[in-house]
Description:
Layout: H1 3-11, H2 59-73, H3 79-87, H4 107-125, H5 137-148, H6 152-159, H7 163-176, H8 186-195, H9 222-227, E1 256-257, H10 260-265, E2 269-270, H11 283-292
Antiparallel strand pairs: 1-2
This protein binds iron/sulfur cluster.
Amino acid sequence: MDSATAYLELTEHRHYQYRGCAPVPADIADFPGQALGDPALSIDAWSTPDRAEGDMEPQKVRIARERRAAAACGGCPVLAQCRAYANAETPGGRLAEPDGIWGGQLALDRHRALIKRRTAAPAAAGVVEDVPEARTAQKQAVLRALARETDEELVAYRAGMDVRTANWHRSLLCGLLGLDKDTATRQQLLNTARRLNLLPKGIRIRPDGRWPIVAAPSGDGVRQRRIAPDMPCQVVLPGYQHLPRTTPSSPAAGPTRASGDGARRGLRLVRPAAVQLPLFTDPGAVAVLGRAA
Ligand code: SF4
């Protein structure tokens, strides 16, 4: 349903005047703008208050206001029509109501639902939708780098930005493509990007191997361990191939985080049992490890 039709269905509903966010008639209201659905609320509770720059609404106040307004929506006689209208898309492909609380939903919920519809639709109908926000030069660079590399530092290097910025873009991409930032893997992100034509045709995606790399890793490897708790952490040495992702011989040994010079040079997550490979017969690697120690 288009947004104009949905708007008419809402505003011409015979119970529209009794909606929860309608003002109580001035002659019986306790205060101006008192909301019909919750006498303690103002009708302004459904939208973000205008404030001077730097004078943000405190988080606790905002959450309490939003919860109360959404609860009032629960008893609204036109909730279904209101939600359908707020989630409808304009001819320009935007949400009819991108801000505020409508139909008991926060703006974030509606944006998430929109992204979900857009990413689910191609699989169902074989049609590729577009996500214009994911087509910026930086996000495209991160996606191409992510297809070629599995290490976050090499991804950042190939994308021409620092690791933090690259991870931030990866996290944003997860949100834009409707993936869970905490659990989405690199392969899931790239597969979704490929399905939406965000990657150049024919680009080869380097496989993760047995280790599912998180799409937007945390610096201490927490997300990696959450999605693959039984897998070892890896040693990263600049200029060298990744170590094979083998299970360590001593399962009792837990991952530890390298510190000091080693961490700065790229010796990041070390599982002692995994440091046993022919790589360390290479004099260059031994020299790097010596300096890192
Ligand atoms: S469902 Fe819509 S019309 Fe009803 S109270 Fe909530 S925002 Fe207002």
